[in-house]
């Protein structure tokens, strides 16, 4: 399917709207929310400063610095975090909703959201879809926004995280995804290798492996997606990654994929063991597989656009992973 | 539903066959298998000795001490572990299949099993169903055997584990479940408390929380079970337990339960934090909930029969959790 036909069939929300025109420009409004864990006031201030330096109109959610009455790992109650997320998305002047950090907790919000109302507010004043950004635990939101709203999203390091402060590579890459058009853009992982050669086209989906596995019983997982599946994780032992992959396989998500792109496995112990696991399990699905595409929790992690179509070529002539286009 | 009507509807496999007569007697054949991790020859020898001391005819699977070519956490290849499990179950002289240890790996075997053939071999020579025993990672087998074969199983500490060697409480309890009838037997947790009062009846299901969450996308999870749900875990941080519970909730498994019985949370950090999580999440389901019923990974963990009906009474007059009977 070409991008043109995809556009024609998406009468209301054009998930390829960012191929020709950048998602954001200076002056646009971005709403900061914390659907998962709690960060410090200092990290929030730094995050706001960074996005304001890019000329954006940053509005911070009311509950972003709230503690949770039970759990130190959550930023505010479920109701408070959900309210910030919903308020941000429903804001008619919002252009993007930026998750300032991950951790754990986004999946706790999903069943209480009025998705019809969210869908009715998915378009910006210019008619293009609003943009959700974030990674790690925010994978739960990427999945729900894809299935429920069918908007494009950006899987990217978050401004409240130390890596965003510490890595110019991360900041430059996020800025380009926000302020430049996506069409034809190549995703170049500095250490990418081919595990299984081949070519594939399809919608980019996925994110954090543990979060994808944790959502397999949820309503939004009833459709096993398909397309080019991105997977990464952090701080997990090999046997756990094994279990997450087996869970995805048993749910049909790996068999549905047209290609598989593995990102970084930061703090996941012996990388050779993780690679051996991937080499044992993934060739059976008969689709191209890339190793170490450089997104996820790497200190210089690259960003990945999700719910847009793209093309993966892993051939003798080299690797090419790009947004938009046709096979 | 009374036990009598349950029996009438189970024409072929009577999952309540052990209520009136003990599962095993001296001379019965038990087949030892290792569907998950690899144990030492010494621990296997000790396990065999213990069961032979009970007068059982122990037959050890061919691959129980095999290493896995990739992963030190697996006992033999998937094919080898699966073959041992299937061979054991298909043995017409087998009375029970005993998993000697857990770890990780049982879920890797499930999709390659011919369940029709397993179902055809589910009865012993005396017409009663064969008995599967084990815990922890073996939860994946308990779930599959319940859904695919509808046989009773025993969630119990395994003979290759150190706790079985070290705890007379464990050995005595396992021995009683194997050599005494189950009907009317009370499950008495030494530290059990009521989190939510009430009465419930239903089929006992569940086991290790992480394993249950990991199976939510799998074919056997399409029926959300119902009945009295047992949950325990080991060596997990609170936020992970939170995620597993949310995953079960989002899949409908908690809402389907008529009662919830929490076991031990061994090495799960601050027990007060785990309890606060349970107290926050579980009352919403409107069913009785017990705290610390003493099964799981506790050094003196009690055994729990699964896929048999039972009754839970958590009232002012005290706690009663028993096998069989009517409300």
Verbal overview:
The structure is a homodimer of 327-residue chains. With 327 residues, chain A is an alpha/beta fold. Chain A has two domains: 3-179, 3-Layer(aba) Sandwich (Rossmann fold); 193-323, Glucose Oxidase, domain 1. Helix content of chain A is 31%, strand content 22%. Chain A has eleven helices and 13 strands. The first copy, chain A, has helices spanning 3-9, 41-53, 78-90, 115-120, 139-149, 162-166, 168-179, 209-214, 238-250, 253-256, 271-281; strands at residues 29-33, 57-60, 96-99, 131-134, 153-155, 193-196, 198-208, 227-234, 257-266, 289-291, 304-306, 309-315, 318-323. In chain A, strands 6-10-9-8-7-12-13 form a seven-stranded mixed β-sheet. A six-stranded mixed β-sheet of chain A has the order 2-1-3-4-5-11, sandwiched between helices. In chain A, strand 3, helix 4 (115-120) and strand 4 (131-134) form a beta-alpha-beta unit. In chain A, helix 9 packs parallel to helix 11. The radius of gyration of chain A is 18 Å and the shape is globular. Chain A starts with a helix and ends with a strand. Mean pLDDT of chain A is 95; it is low at 1-11. The A-B interface holds A 70-71, 73, 103-104, 107-108, 110-111, 213-219, 221, 238-239, 242-244, 246-253, 273, 276-277, 280 and B 70-71, 73, 103-104, 107-108, 110-111, 213-219, 221, 238-239, 242-244, 246-253, 273, 276-277, 280.
